[in-house]
Amino acid sequence: MKPTILITQKLPENVIDYLKAHCECRYWTPSSDSTIEEALKGVDGVMVSGIAINEKTLSMADRLKVVSTISVGYNHLDIEAMKAKGVVGTHTPEVLDDTVADLVMALMLGAARRIASLDAYVKSGNWLPTDVETLFGLDVHHKKMGIIGMGRIGRQIVKRATAGFDMTVMYHNRHRDEEAERLWGITYASISELLSEADFVVLMVPLTESTRGLMDADAFRKMKNTAIFINASRGQTVDEAALIHAVEHGEIWGAALDVFCQEPIDADNPLLKHPRILTVPHIGSATEETRTRMAMSAAENLVAVLNDKEAPYLIPAFKKQ
Ligand code: 8YV
After folding, report:
1. Adjacent-strand bridge partners of 220
2. Which atom of ligand 1 sits closest to the CA of residue 74?
3. Helix, strand or coil for residue 309?
4. pLDDT attached to residue 11
5. Cβ distance 137 to 254 under 8 Å?
6. Do residues 236 and 114 share a domain?
7. Active-site residue flag, 288
């Protein structure tokens, strides 16, 4: 008998075909009549991306073996609650590295060259004013980038920044990446050094108890007043009130954000009102090709676990030591 799984969002056709070949599929979305708790009753596996999996959502899960998230980040999964229920978790690293790195470059260029506000400016019938300097941005090439969190995505950013833009890169990470230092001539720095020297500070850390609120008022005060802050990790790594204060008071030049403390962001959030803050709606990995690859990777993980095979990408906390 095929295992039964729960699909909680729209998936590409080839992924649905693959899942149907291996499983009986049930469907549930947040707009369904039942709750996620009820929907998890009687299923062996579930595909999620943003939905929180915790003690409450698992309360009626009576035969669940695997939660497969279509994301590299898994801060929406309560690992201890899953372990207590004997449920394992898988995720989708690697397939999105280049795509997220591309977005980081787009955010950096977009903020430095004020692309979004200039687009709105031209489309509302304007052209170069006599005081053209009011439209000036900042150079990106030959500047210094500081990356906090040097994982697989960080490395792809480094390649683009050094080879494409002649930037020098400093980084901070829990562990040094000596290979990356050799390959691209990047240098390891303390967070303090990095903040005070970088022209572009790129935050790429996962959300954990030690990174929550990492970018606070003190951190923004250390940055140069010509620097731009870029966040494509998780919103909760930043004290948003401190960030808006830093931009409004000229402590930093601007910011570009893919992620927010609250998603969807509240329309009244002051981050949306400042012209030097570029915002996009958590779309780091959101290209057709990459989201399809991520969904397929998640499906393969799920099917592997349900067939008692080694999942290609088990979340590290579930790996046997
Ligand atoms: C996800 C992401 O696809 O992979 C991650 O961790 O942040 C995105 O790429 C997104 O969270 C899906 O909702």
Report:
1. none
2. 6
3. coil
4. 98
5. no
6. yes
7. no
- Residue 70 CA: nearest ligand 1 atom is 3
Q: Whose CA is nearest to atom 9 of ligand 1?
A: 285
Residues with CB under 6 A from ligand 1: 49-50, 71-73, 96, 284-285
pTM (whole model) above 0.90: yes
φ, ψ for residue 168 (rounded to 5)?
Answer: -100, 145
DSSP secondary structure of 254-304: EEEES--SSSSPPTT-GGGT-TTEEE--S-TT-SHHHHHHHHHHHHHHHHH
* Residues 68, 106 within the same domain: no
CATH value at residue 48: 3.40.50.720
Q: Give 320's pLDDT tier (boundaries 50, 70, 90).
A: confident
Q: What is the end-to-end Cα distance of the chain in Å, rounded?
A: 32
Average pLDDT over residues 207-216: 97
Full residue range of the structural domain in which residue 160 is found = 97-279
234 is catalytic: yes
pLDDT of residue 41: 98
Q: Are residues 73 and 106 in the same domain?
A: no
Reported as a single tens digit per residue, the pLDDT across 242-286 is: 999 999 999 999 999 999 999 999 999 999 999 999 999 999 999
Count the domains in the chain.
2
**Atom 2 (ligand 1): residue with closest C-alpha?**
71
Q: Whose CA is nearest to atom 5 of ligand 1?
A: 71
Q: Determine the residue type at 179.
A: E
